[in-house]
Write a structure and sequence with these properties.
2 domains, 13 strands, seven-stranded parallel β-sheet, six-stranded parallel β-sheet, 19% strand, 361 residues, alpha/beta, Rossmann fold
Length: 361
């Protein structure tokens, strides 16, 4: 049985974290899978991974000391004698693939999940440049969830010539439209008779939930029965709650925190709104399409995620267009879309087959 080290960074609820979780959860008897996460926080996915026979290791993050982190990796790899290192930590993957090469690990995968490019101080740009070169020299596989994400980590030329596109997958059948779940969730949350605008994501600047909250006063003039349902948790919760209070929307915006039955909540929604400032390849949008839920998204979301006719992309500079698109959206033939997403190759099984093939099955 081959030993795999997945450097996930975290195992809390999230898109990239779910990808990491799926690899170990479905590996069964093929591999012995260890996870490396940063800090002491126990993520929501840890319990089920431990139950599945995986091992979870906690260590100080690279930012707390790069030399100490590299030395830790060297000791860990020599002790465990891994056959595969699969790092999901963007530019910090440079340390992992270098340590892996020095310790003779044959398969060293750097995996990009983000296309984010923002202004940064010169020392950070220098760090990224050094790490990119370290990755290009020491990784055996350049993997990414989307083309833009691949170009962000490896550079356009390198990803075009050597990159491997690993489109994130979901358990499509779990996200199929469910009438019974719709009725139950709407009853439990007091949403009967409401036009439910849904969103799933970390409560963070990049997900831009404040944009949706600010739409609500004007949107309610068009749809007095509307309410906004926000699933997720994060650092922006207090700010978003203050904005809700300021706009007197306490009865119109519901924040649930993290939930494990996102599939059921999607069935309870009437339209999905996703105004992200940037994305890699958001799994939530794949899930939405499998559910047959119409979705209004930011035009900054990569086109890789467009696998059905349910998506409508809009710029973020015209609130009226968003209001019009949200208010006129409606479900049509929701039960048919699960099969369409599966046929588009977005099922988790296809993703895992590619990953395990890289591992050497």
């Amino acid at each position: 049985m081959k030993k795999v080290l997945i450097i996930a960074g975290a195992l809390h609820i999230g898109g990239a974290e779910k990808v990491c979780r799926d690899i170990g959860l479905f590996a069964k008897d093929c591999f012995e899978v260890h996870y490396l996460v940063f800090g002491d926080r126990v993520g929501e996915y840890e319990a089920e991974l431990l139950e599945a026979g995986c091992k979870v290791l906690h260590a100080d993050p690279p930012a707390s000391g790069h030399k100490a982190y590299f030395d830790y990796l060297m000791r860990l790899i020599r002790k465990e004698r891994y056959d595969v290192i699969h790092s999901h930590t963007m530019f910090n993957s440079g340390w992992a693939v270098l340590a892996g090469k020095r310790c003779g690990v044959p398969v060293r995968i750097a995996h990009s999940h983000s296309a984010l490019e923002v202004p940064m101080p010169i020392y950070k740009r220098c760090y990224e440049k050094v790490m990119r070169q370290m990755i290009l020299k020491n990784a055996t596989v350049y993997a990414a969830c989307g083309i833009k994400a691949g170009e962000r980590l490896f550079g356009k030329k390198a990803f075009e010539s050597k990159g491997e596109l690993l489109i994130n997958g979901i358990q499509t059948s779990a996200f199929a439209y469910d009438v019974a779940a719709r009725e139950r969730i709407r009853r439990e949350k007091g949403l009967d008779g409401r036009f439910v605008i849904g969103h799933v994501g970390h409560l963070a600047d990049v997900k831009n939930q404040s944009f949706l909250i600010r739409l609500m006063p004007k949107l309610l003039l068009r749809r007095p029965d509307a309410c906004l349902l926000l699933l997720g948790e994060g650092a922006d919760r207090e700010m978003l709650q203050s904005l809700i209070d300021e706009l007197d929307l306490k009865e119109r915006v519901l924040m649930t925190g993290n939930v494990r039955n996102v599939n059921e909540y999607l069935s309870a929604m009437d339209v999905f709104a996703f105004p992200s400032l940037y994305e890699g390849l958001p799994l939530s949008i794949v899930e939405v399409q499998a559910n047959g839920l119409p979705c209004i998204i930011s035009d900054r979301v990569p086109k890789d995620v467009f696998v059905t006719d349910l998506l409508k992309a809009l710029p973020l500079d015209n609130a009226d267009d968003w209001i019009d698109a949200i208010c006129t959206a409606q479900r049509k033939n929701s039960g048919e879309y699960c099969a369409l997403v599966r046929e588009a190759g977005m099922d988790v099984q296809g993703f895992l087959e590619k990953v395990y093939s890289m591992y050497g099955v």
